[in-house]
Amino acid sequence: MRIELVTGDITAEQVDAIVNAANSSLLGGGGVDGAIHRKGGPAILEECRALRASRYGRGLPVGQAVATTAGRLCARWVIHTVGPVFSADEDRSPLLRGCYARSLAVAEGLGARTVAFPLISSGVYRWPKEDAVVQALAGLHDEPATTVEQVRMVLFDADTHAVAERVLRASEYTR
Ligand code: APR
User: Fold this and answer.
1) In the Cβ-directed half-sphere of 130, how many Cα atoms lie within 13 Å?
2) Which residues contact 108 (CB under 8 A, 6 or more apart)?
3) What's the pLDDT tens digit per position in 85-103?
């Protein structure tokens, strides 16, 4: 599985699956979540509502992932995952790694070969960007995905891309 770092808007990614940095309600929000619902259109929210009315009556738990249609996006699926809010008092990094591993497992189950991830929890949920990248790489390598050939980590700005590049270079993970 190749990991590429790109800078841009994840809603423009032409991949099989786009991962959404959602919240437990699955009913939309700001940041990546807002952009995906805005650009993907109502079909995504309709499927999210159906998930809330069935399997996820109490909301999608933190660290879990579930797929819906991608609506009007240039992807087949959106994989919604809920990152942990950063806490200085409690180590929630296993939950953040779980977002990547679970999303990859969902992508694998769908037969997706290319997946785009945002830097989960590093926006509204205030996770420091450098450690967010460390956890992302660890989470991606926790999951022995075989059919997923390419992961594109989509950083929203050049500064975040530079941080990610530095972390990736310093990590033991191959590109
Ligand atoms: N494309 C790629 N990256 C983006 C985009 C975009 N269109 N918009 C924002 N980002 C970046 C942010 O700069 C940040 O680095 O994605 C990262 C995650 O930021 P958020 O979207 O705020 O996600 P998160 O920190 O996980 O917070 C999730 O925010 O939007 C709400 O409903 C969402 O409650 C949930 C919470």
Assistant:
1) 6
2) 143, 145, 146, 147, 148
3) 999 999 999 999 999 999 9
Determine, yes or no, domain membership for 54. Answer: yes
Domain annotation covers residue 175:
no
Domain extent at residue 144: 2-170
- The tens digit of pLDDT for each residue in 55-87 reads 999 999 999 999 999 999 999 999 999 999 999
In a domain, 128, yes or no: yes
Number of domains in the chain: 1
Q: Who's near 25: CB < 8 A, 6+ residues apart?
A: 52, 59
Higher pLDDT among residues 149 and 172, named by residue: 149
- Lining ligand 1 with CB less than 6 A are 9-11, 21-23, 29-35, 83, 118-125, 154, 156, 160
pTM over 0.85: yes
Where residue 86 sits, what CATH number does that domain have? Answer: 3.40.220.10
Dihedral angle computed from the Cα positions of residues 6, 96, 47 and 34, in that order, rounded to the nearest 10 degrees:
-50
Residue to probe by mutation, ligand 1, list 9, 19, 20, 32, most atoms within 8 Å of CB:
32
159 among known catalytic residues: no
Q: Where does the pLDDT of residue 175 fall: very low under 50, low under 70, confident under 90, or very high at 90 and above? A: very low
Instruction: Check residue 154 and give its pLDDT.
Output: 98
